């Protein structure tokens, strides 16, 4: 196709035909030398070296075809009164977004964030997982993951470039394994002429014993600006002069009889930064693996942004970028596909005194503000819709002690709230008063925007309430369409899940596309969580689609033992959907001094065993709770209430609160 248009466009067809007619073939110079046949030039392809690999997509396809996963507000810390400069946003709120960054970035791009972000820092996982497999399989996997990882990052870099302001910059933090491939890719995306530095982060630490090669003690950070004019605050990040330089200046001043000046702010910063890794006692330490020192971000943020600029980190991990941006009075957006990352970052910001308001959001559903007052929803239709959404059996409607249940999920009754205003714990108490302990377990459905219960599990007297929330956007969609609920659900699935053209899913822009493969759907619409700590370093999620926030699925019973040295939670029974067993959980997060409102993770427990290296390079095995069937919370900092979040493989959460004696 390309050749065809080349000949058409350049009007040389005739000339070439003439030559061929006359000589019977093309003369050698025409074939090899002539400008005429510089196809690349004619097609506007430049001659810079490029990285070629299987699966490399066209840039336009990435920008145009990536689906955007709108944000849904999950919780808010503080009320912002600061006007937003983003069109369509009234007040500015710093944002912590849970979801795959590709579709979250696309959403930002589609929603007035184009050219709004001054600085981006990313520190993606390094995709070195295959190092652990052996032989040929490893070689093959390495290649595969090499290409897959490169494209994974390239797609994101392309979107990030669109988000950068004209005078913006990006810093891409990598290591020796993938760094050089990504440098070539980043040159392609941002232009070689905009490459500013390869910063070497040099860290001295004694760990890691090697015998046959040198110890690796540096990271690589590639710094690109979007254009040739960009924010760079040279004076804000100067470095101290060496003693030698200062002495020399002093000596020269004496011998020349005139003052040899040194800049009082220090010398111009160089591209090798010696910054120590976070030691076990450091105040900033969060225990999140791969956490980077705040000092690195401090330099980057000071150099490449000004107060009130927006700083983005799309692989936010423990929230280093957001925490430093917060302290330096920048606006920030952090994205991560791991629930642990979101909770760790949330705690980190909450711990900053006088932090600005921020919102935690899920990327996977969308929100239209203030619409609930404008729409009227037929009560019965709404209830049917809610039941269908969560696969409740509507044929099993029942009235018990004056409470109208809309159906059953498994063996338990489901109550759908359809109040006008917010729904509080008090409302559940009223239900319990009527039921008088007649039912042991009740499932509740409320709409996300009415939620003042702030939990998805609550035990009142002897009744356990499992609370499930319908994403607000779905209700709005429902209200707008207000027709057969199955049509709406199909519509949502089509629009938010199936636009992704991958694997055995068909692109359902085509109305006649066959039914969806349910198994594939399960895989696609949930982000799977890591099960062991060491996976955080290496695993990258690449998920696109629509995610339901809470489902009915998790049921857990536990035994709490208060001991001299803390609390032991023994996990008795785990049931997630129809799967039984503790191995369906990925992580348990604990806030050992829960204030009843904002969850601040203090302890994290992983499902699977892992090997951890201490600062001296000694290895020790950490037992996962799948084997031990219990977790131990030590007494340091233990309060009267503890909050526990159980996460399943897909990031569904069950929150429980326990009071200690
Ligand atoms: C190396 S860590 C970042 C550490 C961070 N710089 C810090 O100081 O804590 C990489 C993070 O990328 C996240 N991640 C991997 N794939 C992702 C994706 N597709 N979207 C969003 N986050 C992703 C992982 O969950 C992990 O937290």
Question: Key features?
Answer:
29% helix; binds S-adenosylmethionine; Rossmann fold; 661 residues; alpha/beta; five-stranded mixed sheet; disordered N terminus
What can be said about this structure in brief?
The protein is of the alpha/beta class and 661 residues long. A hairpin with a 2-residue loop joins strand 11 (398-400) and strand 12.
Question: What does this entry look like structurally?
Answer:
29% of the residues lie in helices and 25% in strands. By secondary structure, the chain is α/β, with parallel strands linked by helices. It folds into 5 domains: 2-42, no CATH class; 48-115 and 123-230 and 271-314, Rossmann fold (3-Layer(aba) Sandwich), CATH 3.40.50.150; 232-268, no CATH class; 379-496, no CATH class; 554-659, Immunoglobulin-like. The strands form 7 sheets. It has a 10-stranded mixed β-sheet with strand order 1-10-2-9-8-3-4-6-5-7, with helices on both faces. A 5-stranded mixed β-sheet has the order 13-14-16-19-18. Helix 7 packs parallel to helix 8 and helix 10 crosses helix 11 (320-327). The longest helix has 29 residues, at 135-163. The protein starts with a helix and ends with a strand. Mean pLDDT is 79; it is low at 1-7, 129-144, 365-376, 492-526 and 544-552. Residues 100-101, 123-125, 288, 290-292, 315, 317-318, 320, 335-338, 341, 536, 540-542 line the site of S-adenosylmethionine.
């Amino acid at each position: 196709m390309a050749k065809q248009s080349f000949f058409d466009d350049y009007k040389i067809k005739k000339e070439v035909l003439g030559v061929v007619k006359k000589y019977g073939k093309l003369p050698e110079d025409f074939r090899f030398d002539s400008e005429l046949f510089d196809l690349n030039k004619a097609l506007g392809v430049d001659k810079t070296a490029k990285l070629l690999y299987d699966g490399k997509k066209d840039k336009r396809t990435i920008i145009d075809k990536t689906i955007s996963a709108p944000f849904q507000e999950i919780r808010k810390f503080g009320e912002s009164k600061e006007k937003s400069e983003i069109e369509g946003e009234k007040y500015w709120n710093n944002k912590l977004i849970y979801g795959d960054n590709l579709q979250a970035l696309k959403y930002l791009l589609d929603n007035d964030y184009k050219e709004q972000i001054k600085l981006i820092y990313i520190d993606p996982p390094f995709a070195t997982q295959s190092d652990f497999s052996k032989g040929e399989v490893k070689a093959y996997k390495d290649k595969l993951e090499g290409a897959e990882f490169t494209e994974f990052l390239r797609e994101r870099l392309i979107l990030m470039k669109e988000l950068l302001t004209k005078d913006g910059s990006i810093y891409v933090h990598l290591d020796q394994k993938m760094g050089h491939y990504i440098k070539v890719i980043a040159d392609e995306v941002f232009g070689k002429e905009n490459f500013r530095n390869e910063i070497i982060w040099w860290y001295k630490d004694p760990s890691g014993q090697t015998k046959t090669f040198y110890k690796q003690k540096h990271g690589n950070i590639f710094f690109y600006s979007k254009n040739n004019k960009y924010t760079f605050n040279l004076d804000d990040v100067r470095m101290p002069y060496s003693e030698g330089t200062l002495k020399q200046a002093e000596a020269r001043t004496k011998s020349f009889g005139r003052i040899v000046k040194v800049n009082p702010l220090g010398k111009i910063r160089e591209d090798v930064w010696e910054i120590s890794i976070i030691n076990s006692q450091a105040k900033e330490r969060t225990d999140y693996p791969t956490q980077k020192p705040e000092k690195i971000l401090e330099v980057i943020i000071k150099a490449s942004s000004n107060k009130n600029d927006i700083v983005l980190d799309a692989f936010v991990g423990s929230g280093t970028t957001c925490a430093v941006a917060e302290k330096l009075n920048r606006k920030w957006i952090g994205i991560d596909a791991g629930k642990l990352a979101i909770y760790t970052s949330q705690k980190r910001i909450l711990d900053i005194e006088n932090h600005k308001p921020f919102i935690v959001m899920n990327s996977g559903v969308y929100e239209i503000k203030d619409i609930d007052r404008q729409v009227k929803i037929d009560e019965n239709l709404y209830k049917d819709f809610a039941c269908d959404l969560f696969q409740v059996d509507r044929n099993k409607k029942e009235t018990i002690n004056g409470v109208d249940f809309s159906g059953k999920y498994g063996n338990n009754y489901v109550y759908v709230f359809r109040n006008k205003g917010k729904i509080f714990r008090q409302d559940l108490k009223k239900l319990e008063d009527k039921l008088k302990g007649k039912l042991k377990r009740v499932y509740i459905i409320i709409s996300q925007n009415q939620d003042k219960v702030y939990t998805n599990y609550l035990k009142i007297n002897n009744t356990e309430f499992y609370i499930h929330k319908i994403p607000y956007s779905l209700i709005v969609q429902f209200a707008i369409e207000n027709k057969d609920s199955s049509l709406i659900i199909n519509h949502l699935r089509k629009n938010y899940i199936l636009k992704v053209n991958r694997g055995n899913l068909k692109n359902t822009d085509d109305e006649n596309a066959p039914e969806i493969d349910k198994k594939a759907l399960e895989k696609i619409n949930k982000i799977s969580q890591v099960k062991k700590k060491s996976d955080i370093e290496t695993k990258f999620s690449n998920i696109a689609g629509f995610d339901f926030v809470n489902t009915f699925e998790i049921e857990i019973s536990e035994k709490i033992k208060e001991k001299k040295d803390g609390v032991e939670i023994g996990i008795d029974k785990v049931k997630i959907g129809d799967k039984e067993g503790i191995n369906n959980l990925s992580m348990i997060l604990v806030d050992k001094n829960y204030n009843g409102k904002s969850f601040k993770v203090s302890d994290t427990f992983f499902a699977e065993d892992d090997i951890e290296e201490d600062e001296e390079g000694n290895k020790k095995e950490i037992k996962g709770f799948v084997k031990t069937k219990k977790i131990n919370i030590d007494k340091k900092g233990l309060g009267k209430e503890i909050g526990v979040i159980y996460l399943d493989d897909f990031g569904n959460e069950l929150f429980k609160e326990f009071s200690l004696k």
